[in-house]
Amino acid sequence: MQKANYIEERKAIADRIKELRIKSGYTSYEAFAVENGLPRKNYWRMETGENFTINTLIRILKIHDVSLEDFFKGIK
């Protein structure tokens, strides 16, 4: 059985994470990561659609005060 990549879905999630950062006034992913105690490289991977853990996503959503339901609205 071949492993699924889910490229389009990961890209949509990555775009939404980046959108939240920008709406919060951060022009730099590095500044956001450092100011919120996140490893820069790991955060960058999330914004580029790399694989990540659900715990990391939840942590980022809590920083932005966004629920999982609201985050995933409109993502197909």
Automatic annotation (TrEMBL):
One of its GO terms (molecular function) is DNA binding. SUPFAM superfamilies: lambda repressor-like DNA-binding domains. PROSITE patterns: HTH_CROC1. Residues 17-71 form the HTH cro/C1-type domain. InterPro entries: Cro/C1-type_HTH, Lambda_DNA-bd_dom_sf. It comes from the Bacteria. This is XRE family transcriptional regulator. The lineage of its organism: Bacteria, Pseudomonadati, Bacteroidota, Flavobacteriia, Flavobacteriales.
